[in-house]
Amino acid sequence: MTELLPIIQLGNPILRQKAKLIDNIEDENIQKLIDDLVATVSKSNGVGIAAPQVAESYRLFIVASHPNARYPNAPEMEPTAMINPRIIAHSSEVVKGWEGCLSVPGIRGLVPRYESIEIQYRDSHGKLQKQQLTDFVARIFQHEYDHLDGMVFLDRVESTLDLITEQEYQQQISKKNA
Ligand code: ZN
């Protein structure tokens, strides 16, 4: 049975740990964790979720870009589990964009990220996948990847002036981009 998992929030020390590599992707607990993360992220209006956010300190996240109430302009894709992911190469271009986090409710920040990245990861069947990601999906990957190293987007903003509340974001920014 797929379960919705409680999401831990900023201040919980698990969010600040370096997550462990997964050796056995076939393990039934890992397979269940993947299914539960997919269900949890879609229920939460998220576009990504990392295992440490549900207090499971493993190198696994879901990238699940789709337009929703929190990200109305997000591109549509199938939710994809990425296990033991790595960034192989990245563009020199860095772009700033607005991010939020299910573990940091109520706050948005303007975060610099590489515009495009070349990545590899194991999929839920253990198969090695290599991809080039750009723009918003590249941003999601980099955000989730940081969770595996104990970082959150607040650590990446250049100034506290680049932080705003979710309510102001919805009123000022989201409307402008729609
Ligand atoms: Zn996050």
Automatic annotation (TrEMBL):
Signal peptide: none annotated. Binds 1 Fe(2+) ion. Its cofactor is Fe(2+). It catalyses: N-terminal N-formyl-L-methionyl-[peptide] + H2O = N-terminal L-methionyl-[peptide] + formate. One of its GO terms (biological process) is translation. The active site is at E144. Coiled coil: none annotated. Keywords: Hydrolase, Iron, Metal-binding, Protein biosynthesis. It is an enzyme of class 3 (hydrolase). Belongs to the polypeptide deformylase family. NCBIfam families: pept_deformyl, PRK00150.1-3. Removes the formyl group from the N-terminal Met of newly synthesized proteins. Requires at least a dipeptide for an efficient rate of reaction. N-terminal L-methionine is a prerequisite for activity but the enzyme has broad specificity at other positions. This is Peptide deformylase. It comes from Cyanomargarita calcarea GSE-NOS-MK-12-04C. The lineage of its organism: Bacteria, Bacillati, Cyanobacteriota, Cyanophyceae, Nostocales. The gene is def.
